[in-house]
Amino acid sequence: MNTGQKFMRLFPSPGLREIVQCYGIIHFVFPRDVAIPVKAYTPKPAESIEFFLRDPEYVVYPGVSQKVKRPSAILSGQQTVTFDRYVGRDFLFFNIHFQPGTLFRLFGIPAYGLTNTFIDAETVLSKEIKELTEQLKNAESYPELIQQAELFISRLIRRSKKEAHGIDRAAQLLLHHTNPISMDWLASQSCLSPRQFERKFKERMGITASQLARIARFDKAFILKNAQPHLDWLSVAIQCGYYDYSHLVRDYKEFTGLTPAFFLEVDGQAPERLLGFADGCYHVPTGSI
């Protein structure tokens, strides 16, 4: 068994990129005499199916003191808050990081029911997700994880509950444009009134369009600073579409409860940071598990 630490983000096949943003693979093995650090997990503009293939993970959400054990496979909705993740000593995590709105398209579940929470994937996918979880647990290499996942996703797409909508294109514009976009313009491009647009957007994405735009901008700033720690905070703010540093501070306080500098210190103690990994890096999957 290869016990080398892995922290990989991987692109999907071209034919799946309308549905999948990326795959995440994390494989950490902590010695018995090492204290496992807590991961403060920030909001990201996505929803996911997540698999815990070795030791389980526990989470604590803001305002809740008790740890909650996550099942082996979960559907996780759009997050708007930072929560704490407690990983196991032999932690093998595989994440299918979907485009916003995908869980609604695939399963017809109103996305606002999954905002800031998760459900056991077996409640929706039953026998199929059990079989996939076992296949992933028995995989002998990281590329095999991707291969099994893409076969599974292709089957889901063929029987998806909802068609693509102009709102999905609107969400992509919010993700990839740094400058502000008029919500009325997005509504007109989606062939909806502003009120219809707001209601349907929340049904598909779990949050409002303005919330998604803020989370996408915050995530860009978080990743940029993590990848280029030499950049000063004002430069990070301007490059990510903020008016100034104070504007960035407001979003950091909204999504993490802390100032940018203070949260950077907290994030520096996360398991992947202590092992020398940064966000925003894409890799080719290689190696045995």
From TrEMBL:
<dbReference type="InterPro" id="IPR046532">
    <property type="entry name" value="DUF6597"/>
</dbReference>
<keyword id="KW-0804">Transcription</keyword>
<dbReference type="InterPro" id="IPR050204">
    <property type="entry name" value="AraC_XylS_family_regulators"/>
</dbReference>
<dbReference type="GO" id="GO:0003700">
    <property type="term" value="F:DNA-binding transcription factor activity"/>
</dbReference>
<keyword id="KW-0805">Transcription regulation</keyword>
<dbReference type="Pfam" id="PF12833">
    <property type="entry name" value="HTH_18"/>
</dbReference>
<dbReference type="InterPro" id="IPR018060">
    <property type="entry name" value="HTH_AraC"/>
</dbReference>
<protein>
    <submittedName>
        <fullName>Helix-turn-helix domain-containing protein</fullName>
    </submittedName>
</protein>
<keyword id="KW-0238">DNA-binding</keyword>
<dbReference type="InterPro" id="IPR009057">
    <property type="entry name" value="Homeodomain-like_sf"/>
</dbReference>
<feature type="domain" description="HTH araC/xylS-type">
    <location>
        <begin position="168"/>
        <end position="266"/>
    </location>
</feature>
<dbReference type="GO" id="GO:0043565">
    <property type="term" value="F:sequence-specific DNA binding"/>
</dbReference>
<dbReference type="Pfam" id="PF20240">
    <property type="entry name" value="DUF6597"/>
</dbReference>
